[in-house]
Amino acid sequence: MTRRIVVIGGDATGMSAANTALRHSGDDEVEVTVLEQGHYTSYSACGIPYWIAGTVSDRDDLIARSPDQHREAGIDLRMRTEATAIDLDEQVVSFRAVDGDGEDGELGYDDLVLATGARPLRPPLEGIDAEGVFGVQSLEDGEAIIKDLADSGHRRAVVVGAGYIGVEMAEAMILRDLEVTVLDQAPEPFTQVDPDMGAIVREAMEGMGMTVRTGVSVEGFDVGDDGRVTAVRTDQDTHPADVVILGLGVRPNVDLAQEAGLTIGASGGIVTDVAMRCVGHENVWAGGDCVETHHRLSHQGVAIALGTHANKHGRIIGTNLAGGYGAFPGVIGTAISKVCSLEIGRTGLGEAEARAAGYGYVTTRIESTNVAGYFPGAETMTVKLLAEKRSGKLLGAQIVGRADSGKRIDVFATAIWNEMDVEEMTFMDLSYAPPFSPVWDAVLVAARKAAKAVEEDIPVSPA
Amino acid sequence: MTRRIVVIGGDATGMSAANTALRHSGDDEVEVTVLEQGHYTSYSACGIPYWIAGTVSDRDDLIARSPDQHREAGIDLRMRTEATAIDLDEQVVSFRAVDGDGEDGELGYDDLVLATGARPLRPPLEGIDAEGVFGVQSLEDGEAIIKDLADSGHRRAVVVGAGYIGVEMAEAMILRDLEVTVLDQAPEPFTQVDPDMGAIVREAMEGMGMTVRTGVSVEGFDVGDDGRVTAVRTDQDTHPADVVILGLGVRPNVDLAQEAGLTIGASGGIVTDVAMRCVGHENVWAGGDCVETHHRLSHQGVAIALGTHANKHGRIIGTNLAGGYGAFPGVIGTAISKVCSLEIGRTGLGEAEARAAGYGYVTTRIESTNVAGYFPGAETMTVKLLAEKRSGKLLGAQIVGRADSGKRIDVFATAIWNEMDVEEMTFMDLSYAPPFSPVWDAVLVAARKAAKAVEEDIPVSPA
User: Fold this and answer.
1) Fold for domain B133-248?
2) Quick check: ipTM above 0.90?
3) Residues A3-119+251-321, CATH architecture
4) In this complex, do B433 and A46 lie within 8 Å of one another by their Cβ atoms?
5) Strands A111-114 and A284-286, how do they pair?
6) With a CB-CB cutoff of 8 Å, which residues 152-171 of chain B face chain A?
7) Which of A312, A262, A267 is nearest to A292 (CA)?
């Protein structure tokens, strides 16, 4: 008998699960229906800031696969169709047509995949719904911003939040020739790295002509008679704005899952086992931005909204749906971003995370260069490491630098993945040639200094 | 009593050992004498092609520390002084002044460090000593080439050997506006990667306007009446040349060690233990290009001439001389190079090496991009992996691509260092953002395909 698979959400996890399940199943073994409430499938949300910046010229470049391509692959894809309820006992999903021109109804399933993604945080501040205040989550958001920037003579952009989306949108606004102010309540921008590293990011952003105001809380938005935002008010000052970008982060979109009675973790994400199966439900699966995953260092559940995890989850779910074996090994918090020419990478635990996880640790920070110091284009790169006290186990790495610095974070990520201690890393056989690194690569220099700190048990002054 | 340390060779290993020993010893605990036969200390031999190319403008940029700086650090440095014999029983080194204006004599030692480096291969071919035929090993060589290129209207350069020095010098000659022909006896250039990857290097070099002639043996050099080279003769053809660069590789310089009775390994390098102590001799140490080191995959002794190993050896020797603990963990054959915009990285074993080591293996090759496929500057990167049959243990990785591809080899190096199997690598948490990689980084795509090949035990057709 053909197994009926229903997937809620047509982006990375959902479509990857759907395609993998179909591809690895025999003829007529499975029948896959995907419900997607938006206009698009399988798009790169991470690419939206670069599209808005004009770096990527065409919206369609961000779409890995269109609805029609998915249909050609044999998926029953229902666009503009919102799942409204799940009955886990009856194994039925209710849905409605978003535009009113489609049909409402119910779908029975044998297997259900939840890929409902995340929702941007949007605090109920005065004026937040004014014209000219934009989130950056969907292609529709991107279209709205591009239209707005084309239509009018905007001069001043205010970006609220200095995380990934915040700094990437700050870059986009600079590239669109706007004056940019970035606001954040933390003491330094980009709290994905520790404050001492964030201070380097701040300095670089200011060097790019951005105004960075930290330690401020946004309290509301001034709105003109035409209904359009005119300024952002914080607890300390007011910043005139022609356009406002919200980059306050996201949280897992688990309304449906919660109403259906699925287990939600402390992080706010759906709890699954390593096969990405919702705990206690043999035939319900979830992945992507709506779930929490195991952090291999803190051993806690974390909800990390990233396309790379979402794609992995989708592939694992699809493999399992097709009778194969897929298991997600967890995350270590690796991420990379850039603001114009400044690259920022991080993996493992920052200081606050390490403390929250109960680790005792030492920290070190070194400066090195991307290429041999005498080579043209040599630029400073700062590397911070956290290593566990006594064991010396690498707990975290943060890199801030210019060209060719950020991706070195993957070497640290691979080291953490293997539970290496910093002493072991000191003499690793990494590649060297003058156009690629100093004779002691920054990774090795950092490891050596960290090993010394572990040996001497140098106390940490909180960053 | 002050311990007398004598170091033979004043480049990476020797000076690093000398400085580390001094820095980590108490006042008057050690007295360090270094004998260096050349004019320079602590220079970047790897940087010479870039200096010749004009990419690095000043010779002094390549000198990490001058003789005077070493002397200020307290080292008794004797330049232009050649060690001529070692008496291990009497613990005495004989030396002579190279220029005749210094003194000859003997030095007693308590500890001896051999850092005699490597010698370029220079087969006894007819005409090899003609004017206009250059090796590229020392700063003196670099000076001679630069002087020669400045003095005359050269048009055609022939590079003999398509290894690291060969391709880097081919780049240098192109940047100096010469017509470049590269000759090698192997079927494809750059035998540090397998022939199927070398073919990509060849195509790229030809695309840069170089002539690449492989499968040819150089038989001699035609010399004009003025004593200057005019052409390079192979077993198949003759290539007119105004200047000839030899890039035939190097071999460990072990004459002194051999005469003294130290053990030389099958690779041609001095045999040491992990502390870099010559086997059987408590107080004799050796490191850098003149030794062989343990290969962590083949478990054989290999002589790899690379500044990064030389510096590590020097630090380890110096640490041990100062009563600390240093141990060299071996190598895995990681290296990186480039020809103009083409980057080449390799780590672990190539196919011939894997076979010679007795491994059964599968291979896979994938194409990916350096950044998200839709991102400006996206360029193809080819990654080849070797994984052990059954176990799936990663045995080797090779990368050929453009910007931002080569340094990814360090991720594979770290994986090999940790004896990861390719299946484990498939879902590693590596960094992702569109300006840095596709959502599945090339490392993960390659690992997944290799895991599949291991599972299906796909036979290897010899590359």
Assistant:
1) FAD/NAD(P)-binding domain (3.50.50)
2) yes
3) 3-Layer(bba) Sandwich (3.50)
4) yes
5) parallel
6) 164
7) A267
